[in-house]
Amino acid sequence: MQIKPPKIIGLTKVRNEAAIIKDTLDRWGEICTGGIYVYDDVSDDMTVNICRTHPKVKDIVMGQVWDADREKAEWMNRQMVLARAQQDADADTWFVYFDADEHPYNFEDWGLFENPDVKAIAARLYDIYITPEDEKKHYLEREWIGPEFRTIVFFFRNLPGIRYHLPDQRIVTFPANVGNIPIAFDVKHYGKGFSVAHWEATCDYYIKFWPKYSDKWRQRKGKAVHTDMLSDFGNKLIKWEDRKAGFSLEPMPYGKN
What we know:
Shape: globular
Number of helices: 5
Largest sheet: 10 strands, mixed
Number of strands: 10
Helix content: 10-25%
């Protein structure tokens, strides 16, 4: 491990994440040497207060109006928090974007930040599921995942021209010469494995505000607990410790969720 870690600024956007956001900020705070910048999408719970009092949070960009056009809001919110963080960044700064329900694991290759040829670093993101055996447990105790993973860029250098500008954009736009992007760690995605109530609220959210995902989520109503032990993509669940047996969803038209 390098003696002096690079300046890494965390970026996230949140809305009504009071039940999970402290855990998420704690996890990413171990990595974000330059602090964390938050975009709040008009939360009406304690999310902002939790973020404001967290020692790793440097600033909060407060949204003024909740935009029902979610394809536009996804990229605009991320762009706004990136632009704010860039005010406190320099040419050597790294950024890491994460959603409020994502926790990093197994990141150990700090030498990647010192390699001038590495402009970005990706992770394998796995969905956590609720099963009959852990329905009553705390969400952090759940260990069943889908074997599928999505390869998503999390870390990226403060390169000229990086931006969010495309509908429903999650991965930042890079210059054309970004080169190869190594995959260096894993991420647990708790969006489907937090609680039954959260699952139902997620279904309602996609049904109402995301036409391109609404049919898929309508079929998931009432199915938070995976009694069949299958993922949402029809594959047998595996334990987190067995994730190397998984496979990528990248070639499949799986959408976002």
